[in-house]
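4.2 Preliminary Data

To establish feasibility before requesting continued support, the project team ran the inverse folding procedure on a target of 345 residues. The structure was first converted into the token representation described in Section 3, and no sequence information of any kind was made available to the design step. The complete token record follows.
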């Protein structure tokens, strides 16, 4: 596995870049906006293709780089389903697996620092965000933080992982880079409490100043959605109602870009074709499934996904490769559900 731990010294943030092989798909966790050029350079140097950018939670101390990375690489942005960010391409929940080529991370919901805090577990390591830090735990006094929930996330979930599991947090301010579950159980002062009430007391009396960047970072991190106006201005957007009127029309084909797990959980627009976003470039290139479908049948291609981000990027890619009939369902399945559109399995 290719694995890099990168550091932003201004916010004390760790960012993780990983891939299963050179030339393969890559995932980045908790990127910082000021460091985006550095990440892109490293991605080029390691001959990787960034396909997913993930935030463990909505950060208050730095502006996320996931939006900028999406704009530069057309990668999929990912956060937990509770996030208050306006749009991310994909939302994950406890029990999901976050996958890229050759790698799979189990999704654990670990609220407490914020109500949208998630941890991501691999065979030998866990990315704990700000839930479990090295010899510390993330503060719980803003962004719907809750020390009682954090106690559960720690003692009920993270500390139950095997003791040798490596702990990679989202921050460190002392220069530590990695720990293990066993080490934290033995030496983390915040975990030396006898009850949940003692933990709540401890966390409620930390008296910390707010992060310097909080008033800038939180609003910025809530607005990471792809600007879709250009797609709309060119007439490449359909509302859910307009799409519903096209259902069953012989000259229209709906194309679902989501992953199988998302389809199973949220349902599928009846009669649609499944063409997952990671294979899009191939599919819209000459000789590809969608390119040939559009050419052979002159059918109109209507892309959709969860929230309209992947589909907006797909429309652009399809139009760029000469598929003039490509458009998308604005707002994705979320908008479709809200409009009362029918869903099958
Ligand atoms: Fe945080």
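Position-by-position output of the design step:
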């Amino acid at each position: 596995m290719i694995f890099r731990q990168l550091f932003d010294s201004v916010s004390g943030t760790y960012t993780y870049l990983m891939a299963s092989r050179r030339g393969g798909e890559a995932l980045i966790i908790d990127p910082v906006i000021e460091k985006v050029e550095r990440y892109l350079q490293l991605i080029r140097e390691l001959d990787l293709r960034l396909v997913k950018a993930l935030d463990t939670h909505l950060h208050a101390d730095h502006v996320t780089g996931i939006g900028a990375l999406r704009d530069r690489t057309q990668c999929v942005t990912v956060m937990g389903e509770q996030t208050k960010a306006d749009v991310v391409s994909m939302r994950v929940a406890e029990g999901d697996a976050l996958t890229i080529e050759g790698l799979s991370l189990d999704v654990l919901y670990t609220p407490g620092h914020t109500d949208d805090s998630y941890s991501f577990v691999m065979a030998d390591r866990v990315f704990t965000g700000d839930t479990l830090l090295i010899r510390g735990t993330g503060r719980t006094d803003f962004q719907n933080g809750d020390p009682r929930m954090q106690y559960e996330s720690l003692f009920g979930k993270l500390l139950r992982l095997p003791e040798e599991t490596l702990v990679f947090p989202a921050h460190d301010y002392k220069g530590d880079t990695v720990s293990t579950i066993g080490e934290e159980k033995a030496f983390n002062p915040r975990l030396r409490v006898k009850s949940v009430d003692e933990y709540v007391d401890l966390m409620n009396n930390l008296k910390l100043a707010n992060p310097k960047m909080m008033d800038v970072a939180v609003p910025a991190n809530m607005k990471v959605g792809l600007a879709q106006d250009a797609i709309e201005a060119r007439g490449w957007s359909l509302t859910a109602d307009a799409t519903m009127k096209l259902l069953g029309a012989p000259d229209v084909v709906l194309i679902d870009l989501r992953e199988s797990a998302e389809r199973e959980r949220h349902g599928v627009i009846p009669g649609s074709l499944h063409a997952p976003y990671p294979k899009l470039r191939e599919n819209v290139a000459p000789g590809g499934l969608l390119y040939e479908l559009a050419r052979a049948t002159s059918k109109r291609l209507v892309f959709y996904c969860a929230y309209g981000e992947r589909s907006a990027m797909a429309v652009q890619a399809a139009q760029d490769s000469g598929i003039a009939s490509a458009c998308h369902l604005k707002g994705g399945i979320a908008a479709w559900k809200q409009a009362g559109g029918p869903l099958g399995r």
